[in-house]
Structure formats: C-alpha cells, structure tokens
Amino acid sequence: MVGLPEVFTVWGVETCRALHGADAMMTVGSTHPDYDSNAATWSRARDVLSGEDAVKAAGEKYLPRLDSQSDEEYGTYKSRASFFGATARTLAEYLDLIFRRAPTISFGERKELQPFVADCGVVALNVRSVL
User: Fold this and answer.
1) Do residues 58 and 84 both lie within one domain?
2) Which of 2, 25, 30 is nearest to 13 (CA)?
3) Cα(109)–Cα(95) distance, rounded to whole angstroms?
4) What whole-number distance in Å separates Cα of residue 42 and Cα of residue 14?
5) What percent of the chain has pLDDT over 70?
6) Which of 54, 56, 60 lies closest to 80, judged by CA?
7) Statement to judge: residues 111 and 75 lie in one domain
8) 97-113: per-residue pLDDT in tens?
9) Cβ count near 69 (within 10 Å)
10) Which residue range is the domain that position 18 belongs to?
11) Number of domains composing the chain
12) How far is it, in rounded angstroms, from Cα 17 to Cα 3?
C-alpha cells in the first residue's frame, strides 16, 4: 500500500480503503463527518438545557457583543440579559408523558418468535424483564 508504513498493511486497513476509498482511514483523534456536522447542534442543545448560567458562560457564542462595546459594558450587558429556560422544563414534561405508563409489548401469534420471547439474553431473561 502506498503511503502507509508496513505495520499498517493489515486486513482491516485494506478492507476499509477498498470499501470507503483511499482517504477513509481515521486517526485516533479524528471524528466521523456525521459527528462533525452535528456537534454544534448538540452543544447548543446541552447549553440550552443547562440553563441561563451555561448560556451566559458561552458569552459571545449566544449573546453577540454590540459594536464599540467595551469589556466592562459587555459584562454588564450580559449580566442584565435573561434567558427563559422553557426547554429544560419542556423536555422534563415530555419525558414524563413518555414514561407515564409501562410499555405494551405484543408479539402476536407468530410461533417462530416464542423461543426468543422466552429467552432473549445470555442469562435466560425473557423479553419483558429485559425491557
């Protein structure tokens, strides 16, 4: 393989490159493109769910500095700003709605599912005890 030290010419790297292209090998510190495209959204959601302190701690990320505003003026501006934390309360209420009742499990009359329903784990657990 061109460009790789001999130690990396193992089945996994060759298969990865054959399936996904020459640039598919990821280093230990690299992230998946799907992660990269969603990381900012996840960070924003975490900050909003954490509340006003987290939003204010992010500073100019969520509360842009006005033109010609000094550091002291911006600090005062940020301290006067308010953040209505409805997102965390809404999430809590939706989770309460989802988990208010135990789930209903129905497998129908299919005979081929009965062995799985009776033992779906490695320690002889039935489906209802796993869920």
Assistant:
1) yes
2) 25
3) 32
4) 33
5) 71
6) 56
7) no
8) 988 888 777 777 777 77
9) 13
10) 1-30
11) 3
12) 13
